[in-house]
Amino acid sequence: MIVVTVSLQEKNGIYQAVLNYKDNEGKRKQKWVSTKLKIRGNKKIALAKAEEIRVNFENELNSKTLEIKKSQTTDILFIDFLKKWVENVRQTIEPSTYTSYNQIISDRMTAYFTENPIKLVDIQAIDIQEYYNYLFKDGLSANTVIHHHAIIRKCLDYAYTMDIIPNNPADKVQRPKKEQFIGNFYNESELNELFEKSKDDPMELIILVTAYYGLRRSEVLGLKWDAFNFERKTITIKHTVVIVTLDGKRQLYQKDRTKNKSSYRTLPLVDEVATKLLELKEKQDYFKKAFGKSYSKEYQDYVFVKPDGVLVRPDYISQHFKILLEKNNLKHIRFHDLRHSCASLLLAKGIPMKSIQEWLGHSNFLTTANIYAHLDSNSKQLSAQTLASALSVNKDIKKEIEESDSSNPLIEQLAIC
To answer: How far is CA 261 from CA 208, 237, 265, 374, in A?
Structure first.
């Protein structure tokens, strides 16, 4: 949108409205328009007239700009507009979100809508629905298709807001139903076996901390030494590290905030973890001296770094964890499933769901309940016992019959006989 400012100038005894603005290419422009009002005694009227001229001129400019944009977008393909849109919103979203959007658009979306070219102005609800059908046939889950739906809907909503299309056809398409997530996890004995088999492994402490606190990968790698208060015995989750792809390059992205407000949390520091951390601190001090000037100072505040001080990368975590499990013949789970293992163990030990929500840093209770309700065997067992007690079929049926029919003469006669 072009913004026009105005000022009053005098020329040949007449007030002039001087309009200043930047055109669509960012070049400064100026235009003089006469108010046709003489200078003497007309300043207030001239100011009002100048503002009227400014408003009309600004509306005229923006109307012409919109017409130009419409003519430019009449023939644009939907897939090309998608790619332009994601670049337009790049500065308003997280780099990790931009990476996710870009990956989805450049993969299946580009493949499908290149083979089935549709103009932006021509796309209809049926076209979007057929794309979802294609994704389902290709084996994608409903939860994944929901991500595609969100991108398409936001893009078309932007086109609608910009008056390029008359409505958002994605609003007419039924959003796929989200599937219940059932995560894989280790039970108590399996976790203890993992701890035993991972001793002296480079990831030993990463695994321990992740399993104890149910951390996300970005959270455990984002731990800095100032997150730990060894006197008060607390750990604060407040910093994250993820991998993003920007301008075709994969790079680490560090941010002093968590996934959501609830993810910022302070938890008790377990003694076993505290001991291991202090041992690691001593090792890092040794490595700093051993490596000397070649020791990386960029990540010196972080807990989980390599011997040379370079931060452990997220993809290394996932890859090495898989190798560790295979090497020791342990059941295959993802690294993220340590988070689910933590939650399932807490549930098995009778910890309330609300407390587990706070421990994991979920944004709301429903998220925790939807993911882990099927594992809540304690509350189900209590429900079963309550029902069994209230609806017991082992009561003395004969006693009930005697009490209810003791006044029946026929029963009394039979009893005498």
So the answer is: 25, 11, 9, 26
Query: DSSP readout, 278-289?
Result: HHHHHHHHHHHH
pLDDT at residue number 72: 59
Tell me the pairing of strands 14-22 and 5-11. Answer: antiparallel
Residue 249 forms beta bridges with which residues? 246
Question: 404: burial class by Cβ within 10 Å (0-12, 13-18, 19+)?
Answer: exposed
Between helix 271-291 and helix 204-213 the angle, nearest 10°, is 150
- Given a contact cutoff of 8 angstroms between Cβ atoms, the answer to whether 264 and 238 are in contact is yes
According to DSSP, the residues that pair with 266 across neighbouring strands are: 236
**Cβ partners under 8 Å of residue 190, min gap 6:** 330, 331, 341
Q: Which two tokens stand for residue 19?
A: 């309009």
pLDDT in tens, 106-150: 999 999 999 999 999 999 999 999 999 999 999 999 989 999 999
Residue whose C-alpha is closest to residue 210's, from 232, 227, 190, 195: 195
Q: Lowest mean pLDDT: which of 34-38, 158-162, 347-351?
A: 347-351
pTM across the whole model: 0.64
Cα separation of 237 and 202, whole Å?
22
Residue 224, amino acid? K
Q: How confident is the model at residue 256 (pLDDT cuts 50, 70, 90)?
A: confident
Instruction: Extract the tokens encoding 94.
Output: 């997280």
- Cβ proximity of 251 and 98 under 8 Å: no
Phi-psi region of 144 (alpha: psi -120 to 50; beta: other; left: phi over 0): alpha
- Which tens digit of pLDDT belongs to each residue from 346-379? 887 888 878 888 888 876 655 565 555 555 455 5
Dist CA 30 CA 38 (whole Å): 22
Closest CA to 220 of 87, 340, 331, 317: 317
Contact 253, 96 (CB under 8 A): yes
- Rounded to 10 degrees, the C-alpha dihedral 87/90/91/94 comes to -170
